[in-house]
Amino acid sequence: MKKISSIEDYNSQYKKSVEQPEAFWADVAENFTWKKKWDSVLKWDFKNYDVKWFLNAKLNITENCIDRHLPQKANDIAFIWESNFEDKPNRTITYQQLHDEVCKLANTLKSFGVVKGDRVCIYMPMIPESVFAMLACARIGAVHSVVFAGFSASSLAGRIQDCDCKVVLTSDGAYRGDKIINLKNVVDEALEICPSVKNVLVYKHTNTTVSINSSRDKWWGDLVPNASDKCEPEVMDSEDMLFILYTSGSTGKPKGVVHTCGGYMVYTCYSFLNVFQYNPGDLYWCTADVGWITGHSYITYGPLLAGASSIIFEGVPTYPDAGRFWKIIDKYKVTHFYTAPTAIRALEALGLDFVKPYRLNSLKVLGSVGEPINEEAWQWYNTNIGKEKCPIVDTWWQTETGGILISPLAGITKTKPSYATLPLPGVQPILVDEKGNEIKGNNVEGNLCIKFPWPSIIRTTYGDHERCKQTYFATYNNLYFTGDGCKRDENGYYRITGRVDDVMNVSGHRIGTAEVESAINAHADVVESAVVGYPHDIKGQGIYAYCIVPSSKKSHEELRKEIIAEVNKIIGPIAKPDKIQIVTGLPKTRSGKIMRRILRKVAEGEINNLGDTSTLLDPAVVEEIVKGAL
Ligand code: WT7
């Protein structure tokens, strides 16, 4: 695929993508292997939400990720795996080995009776087998649903039930720094309430003792190595489901975002190559977990579609010490490094002594993703890691967008700290006010929407299309609403300012306030709670919970511990409240609505500027809350 080569080239590509979107994307799509080409490029309707790309085209994404590269690249590195432990030998996986492993696993899934359209849950650590697992599903047309291995049994069960997974792929355990997490135990607990699961395939990784239910559970090592390494790719329609990935919103349970084969393939490859400007011989490293969309699009699919070589890292940035990222970059001569602002801020706080021992001179491009990057972190990253010679691509996108929508193109777009800058070709952002009126011109701020479909746009929320319509297409007429606030500067550069709905972004993880509240309310003594985000130096946002616990005999300290345990149990440690304030009431309007605005102000420490409280049912509650603020 020919990459955009200059800002003039970008401008003319962008223009073409808006004036002739179908011709533009058809040209891009020509770069792939299709079993049958499309009859038409795009059909769309944002009102009765329905979007289809490359209609009636047939393909298999794994053929494009793997087989297509084999004639030239069979022995090129697809992945280098770096263990949690720095003294443990690494693993390299060539494209040929990737092919063989994926086929063997695909055949193993077939032996369990998995067929095209079946859902398979992947609950695994950051090991190459997780990528094999996703691709093995895609090879046979099964739909993968990867669940981040930090989620609790109850979250895992909810996700398995929502899409009726037939099989779960997991491992005995996962290493995270100096901890071992017993994943198989979590799966066992989850499956007590998941009758749809007929088989569990367990990869032995940590040698942790696990219980094996012999009719259901099989060891990976007993089956996969003996399976055939040939597996014909299933012929998929462009709009057949590729995967489901659950994500949080402002209300209700997490929803299963659905992506389909053709458009997702075209867009992840296109965006990967153009944003990162990856060239043959480069070595790319994205530090995300495959449990999030970043891992799907920019560890697994985008880089493989582009035939790139990547690092997969199992560990954490601070183990054995805060120099681990930089050590790995020097060890393998990483050229492209893509991480989250929260990691940058955490490492910045630990001091430059952990950076200084490393040369970092292989680096060419730095990336940021998951949350707004504050100017200080941007500068630190630019100066100390990029040595002021690596463009920083601040990539804005979402689980629902499938790929990066707004970002500099490395070395092409002039960067500006904390700005995601310009839309990729094919992406048409628009800012609107509360009523949905377009805010035109520059130097303005509003709610970020997109007015035209791009190939990897969400197709539906699994099992509930109405929810997809309501969540993304009902707020504003004929627009996809992102949920983000956004500024446009004098040059037309975009800066994402954060969520404008009840979704928090904690260390780059998206967590709905309603979800945390419902977990807290599961504690027997809690009668009501309200959760808001507040600015946090490292995490971006912290979680602040106000809890009403009227008749409890327990101390506040004890209650806090128990509430945290409840959240860990129901969601997982990523949703654990940072602050819990026990209150006797919540500020409510006369109609009973919680005034979150006031709770946010208190959590932010802005107690002198609470705004209008005259419509409150009981203004005295506010006084108490302010006095007890943490
Ligand atoms: C939300 C999406 C995109 C993959 C990881 C997160 C925030 C994401 C940026 C950025 C400012 C960002 C937005 C968005 N976000 N990237 N570069 N600058 N904000 O995916 O879990 O679906 O979360 O993350 O608020 O809506 P996600």
Tell me the β content: 15-25%
Overall helicity: 25-40%
What is the name of the CATH superfamily of the domain at 503-629?
A: ANL, C-terminal domain
Annotated CATH architecture of the domain at 503-629: 2-Layer Sandwich
Average pLDDT metric:
97
Strand order of the largest sheet: 12-11-8-6-7-14-15-23
The CATH top-level class label of the domain at 503-629? Alpha Beta
Number of strands: 30
Q: How many helix segments?
A: 19
Main beta-sheet annotation: 8 strands, mixed
Could you tell me the radius of gyration in angstroms?
24 Å
Poorly predicted parts: none
Distance between the termini: 54 Å
- Secondary structure class reads alpha/beta
Bound molecules: 5'-O-[(S)-butoxy(hydroxy)phosphoryl]adenosine
State the CATH topology of the domain at 503-629. GMP Synthetase, Chain A, domain 3
